[in-house]
Amino acid sequence: MNLEDHLGDVLRKGRLHAGVAVETAAHAGGLTSAQWQALEETGTVPRPLPWPVLAPLLHLDAVKLAGLAQGWTPRPVEVTQWRELRVITTGGDGCTVNAYLVWDEVTREAALFDTGLDASPIRHLIESEQLQLRYIFITHGHEDHVAGLADLRRQFPKARLRRSDPTAPPDQRNRLNDCLALGSLRITLRETPGHAADGVTYLVGNWPDDAPHVAVVGDAIFAGSMGKAPEAAALARQKVIEQILSLPPATLLCPGHGPLTTVAEEKAHNPFF
C-alpha cells in the first residue's frame, strides 16, 4: 500500500500548519513559486533541496524529510501475530479509507473501528467469520470514516455505537476512563483532537500470545505524516506525542489512510515528530 502522503503532501501540510506562504517556502528551498507548487502537487524534487534550512521553517525534521525524499516507507508489519485483526480498505473518488475489525477468538465477539466508504466488505467478513458485532467505534466524524455507518446500524441493530462527538446521545459517547471488554480483549481510549475536534485513538490490548497493543488512530497520524490540522496544528502534534508516540515501540498503529506502521517507525522517520 502506498503512503497516504507523498513528500509534496508533507511539505504542504507543514507549510499550512506553520502559516508559511508559498513564496517564503520556495525562497528557502531555492525554488521559484511555480517549482514549489509543482513539488507540493507531485512530490517530485527537481534537485537536492537544503533540508536543514527548509525544515525548521516548516516545523519539520530535516533528516526525516531527507529520508522521505529518498523513498522511505515503513517496514512491512507481520500482522499474523494479531490473528483476529483485519484491515478493510474501501475507495472512491480517488480516496481510500481503512476500517478495522477485531474479535475474540473464543466468544466471536467483534468490534469495528470506523466504517470506510462501503459497508459491504465488513458485513461479508462478519458473516464469513460467524462473528457477533458488539461495538462500532468511530475515531472521528469525517464523512469518509462514517459513510457506511447507517447501513451497518440497520444490519446490526444490537451493536453499540461509541464516539467522542459531544452532540451524540449520552449512551453513545465515549468516556475517558472506559475500559471495555471484548471477550479477553480490552479496549481503552485516548483523546487525540486536532485533525478533528472529536478525534480519539482506541487502544486494543490483552491479545493472545502477548502480541503488542494495537492503536486505531484515525487521521491523527499516518505512516510518515499526519492529518491536516491548519487550525489546530500545535494541539494535533501535542496529542500525537503524548497519547500515541508515548506507547511502547512495538505498538501497531492503524491509520485511517495508508499502510500500517508502528510507534518505533514513526518516532524514527516521521518528519512531523
Give a written overview of the molecule.
By secondary structure, this protein is of the alpha+beta class. The protein folds into two domains: 7-69, Orthogonal Bundle (434 Repressor (Amino-terminal Domain)), CATH 1.10.260.40; 79-269, 4-Layer Sandwich (Metallo-beta-lactamase, Chain A). Helices cover 30% and strands 23% of the residues. It contains ten helices and 13 strands. It has helices at 7-18, 22-29, 33-42, 51-57, 62-69, 120-128, 143-146, 149-155, 233-243, 263-269, and strands at residues 85-92, 95-103, 109-113, 132-137, 160-162, 179-182, 185-191, 200-205, 214-218, 221-222, 225-226, 252-255, 261-262. The strands form three sheets. A six-stranded mixed sheet has the order 6-7-8-9-12-13. Strands 1-2-3-4-5 form a five-stranded mixed sheet, covered by helices on one side. Strand 10 and strand 11 form a beta hairpin. The two termini are 22 Å apart.
Topology overview:
Elements lengths: L6 H12 L3 H8 L3 H10 L8 H7 L4 H8 L15 E8 L2 E9 L5 E5 L6 H9 L3 E6 L5 H4 L2 H7 L4 E3 L16 E4 L2 E7 L8 E6 L8 E5 L2 E2 L2 E2 L6 H11 L8 E4 L5 E2 H7 L4
Parallel strand pairs: 3-4, 4-5, 9-12
Antiparallel strand pairs: 1-2, 2-3, 6-7, 7-8, 8-9, 10-11, 12-13
The number of helical segments is 10
Mean pLDDT: 97
Name of the level-1 CATH class of the largest domain:
Alpha Beta
Q: Summarize the helix and strand pattern as letters.
A: HHHHHEEEHEHHEEEEEEEHEEH
Shape descriptor: elongated
* Number of strand elements: 13
Proportion in helices? 25-40%
How far apart are the termini? 22 Å
> Strand order of the main beta sheet, please?
6-7-8-9-12-13
The total tally of domains equals 2
**CATH topology title of the largest domain:** Metallo-beta-lactamase, Chain A
CATH superfamily of the largest domain: Ribonuclease Z/Hydroxyacylglutathione hydrolase-like
Structural class: alpha+beta
Q: Radius of gyration, Cα only, in angstroms? A: 19 Å
CATH architecture descriptor name of the largest domain: 4-Layer Sandwich
